[in-house]
Amino acid sequence: MARSKVAPVKYLSVPRMELQAALLGARLMRTIIECHTLPINERYIHTDSEVVLSWIRSPSREFKQFVACRIGKILSLTEPTMWRHVPTKQNPADCLTKWGKETQLETDSQWFKGPPFLYLPPSNWPIQKILSGKKTEQNIPTTSVLHSLSPVSDTFGVIRIDGRTANAEYAEYDARYPIILPKQHHITRLLIEDYHSSLGHGNRETVVNEVRQRFHVPSLRTLVDRAARDCQRCKIAK
């Protein structure tokens, strides 16, 4: 089973590969239940992907085709309440790829016995850290600029774009998943002013291209023009 489930040659973003793994987990759970002779009262599936959990638990089903197809299959095999979050450091599935060479694989290790919290009542299991909007089950309005950007939150809760740029295999992570910044926020203005200054008060397109290597800002060119107009050095130079 595991040998045939390696990352495909065609590039997929990390969240989409994690979604593929979640679908595989759902299918394995169904197979185990069908083959098991003892009754199973409680069923849980753990993942360390907060993006996948947000997709599974989302009351809205407005996903792109790739995500929508796999979420539909997952929900046909499981219930959203079966899915739980496991911190990466406590995820046995990652021990061969993320925990370094000192990982112990003895029979009393986490690889064989699972994370310690599984021996506790479910009320003591790890709780996923989620954004305030998700806590209140708020959907993104169709009129919002975020609606068409396929926003996802990374492991630090930073909102990023999971769009076509994710297919740029050799680009830096921030370029593939740029951070979304609100155009009217004070921090956004300071950031653009800093880029304008550090790039030698250059032309607009230079600043725009550099900002887009890490960030997505609506109406970016307008904000860059405004920063140039308000720049005292540029005013003196004119």
Automatic annotation (TrEMBL):
What's the name of the protein? Integrase_H2C2 domain-containing protein
Which Gene3D superfamilies does the entry mention? 1.10.340.70
Provide the Integrase zinc-binding domain boundaries. Answer: 186-238
Q: Which residues form a coiled coil?
A: none
